[in-house]
Amino acid sequence: MTGTTHAAGRLDPRRAVSTRPARPADRTLAPFGRRRLPVVRRVERGAYVVLSLADPDGPEPDPGQFAMLAAAERWGGGADERPFLPRAFSIARRHADGTLDFVLEAVGPGTERLAELDAGDEMWLLGPLGRGFRWPRAGRRAVLVGGGIGIAPLAIWQDELEAGPLVLLGFRDAEHAAGAGLLRGARVATDDGSVGHRGLVTELLSAELGCDPRVEVYACGPPAMLEAVRVLCAEHEVPAQLALESAMACGYGACFGCVVPTRDGYLRLCVDGPVVDAAALEEVT
Questions:
Q1: Most exposed among 13, 103, 128, 273, judged by the fewest C-beta atoms under 10 Å?
Q2: Of 255, 249, 246, nearest to 273 (Cα)?
Q3: CATH number, domain with residue 202
C-alpha cells in the first residue's frame, strides 16, 4: 500500500497487458453440497477480519467468484433461537496449499458471529459460485477499482493478472484503509483524508481515464461507487466489469433473491454474475 497519490502512478504501457486467451464463458463449478472446513488463520486488518479456510480438495476458483459461508457451530440462535442464512463472500485469495481467504467486516449479528471465529473453529462453505472476471480485451491494461470490503475479489484477480495492474482503492477512514494491504502497490483515497487522497476513489479513476483510456476497468464496492464507475467508463468509452453486491439466500439461483435489472431483462447475480459488464446496465442501484 502506498497511501499516497503521485504522478508516478500514471499508467505505464508495459503494465497489465494480457496475452492470455479470453477466459471461457463457463465457470468453475462447485462440488455438490457444502463442505465443512477448518479455520486455519484469523488476521485483523483495521476494521476487517481475514479468515483463512483449509480447502485442499476444493476446486481452484475463478477470480470474482464467491462462496456461501456459515459457522458450523452456534450459527444464529440467541434469545429466540433464530438461525441465520448463509452469507455470500467473495473469495479474496487462494494459496498454493488450497487455503481460501475471505474478508469480513462485522456489521450485524451474522457477520459478527463469523468475524469472531478463529483457528480451530469450523465453517460450512458452498462454492465457488457465480461467474468471475474475464481477461482484458486485446491491447487494454487492467485497472482495479475497489471500495471498502469490495477489495476482496480484486486481490485474487491481481494475483492472476500477468503484469501488475493499476490498483485504486477507496475507504471511509484510516481504520478501513488498512485493508488496502491485501493488494500490492495500491493508491488509496479516504473520505476523511486520513490516508492518501482526500476524496473519492472515482476521482483517482477519472484522472487516469483522462490520461489514457486504453484500459479495462474491474470494480467492486458499494452501489454508489459502482454507478460512478459505470458512468465514467461510459463517458470515456472504456469497457468495465463490475462485481455487484446483492442479498443472497441460496447462492445457486433457486430463490431469485438477487435479481437485478439489465438492458436485456433481469439476471440472477448468483448464477449470471456477480461480475456483469457495465454496458449491460442502465444503472447500478
A1: 13
A2: 246
A3: 3.40.50.80
